Sequence to fold (169 residues):
Amino acid sequence: MIRRPGIFWNLLTVFGLGHMRPASGTWGSLPPVVLAGCLILVGAGPASMPWVYYGALSLVLLIFAGVCVVHGDDAEARWGADASEVVADEVAGQCIPLMFIPSALEQDVRLMLVMLAGAFFTFRFFDISKLEPANALQRLRSGWGVMLDDLAAGLYAGLAVWVLGLLID
Fold:
């Protein structure tokens, strides 16, 4: 069992964002968007420094997905099945559509803000709506069910962001 406030508790709740109300999943989805925006602002975006941009998002995705899967049983024992306090899955899932932002738009700050907002809102839409197979994936046991439905939502949102990028470009 994870004891509060250890590192795994902090990662599962994304340093307490999982306790924010209302809509803890929305709060938990914000850190990757802020990270991507900061990387773009400091010149480490998908076009100028792709290895930094994609590397950072991939690392965040892997860390939070791993913690969610490995400690999913502990989280369920503490808070119940797919508890709103656990938002590590939202962090991991939100990283995916951010990787679909077209690098060609990096030089236009307004378009990048549109793309960041598009990635955020489409992920939240697909995460909440639980379109198949995300809904079926959510029923898997332990941390896998908690995690995989958000990764599916991230892929759906990534495709939407890619289409949005094609329409804007």
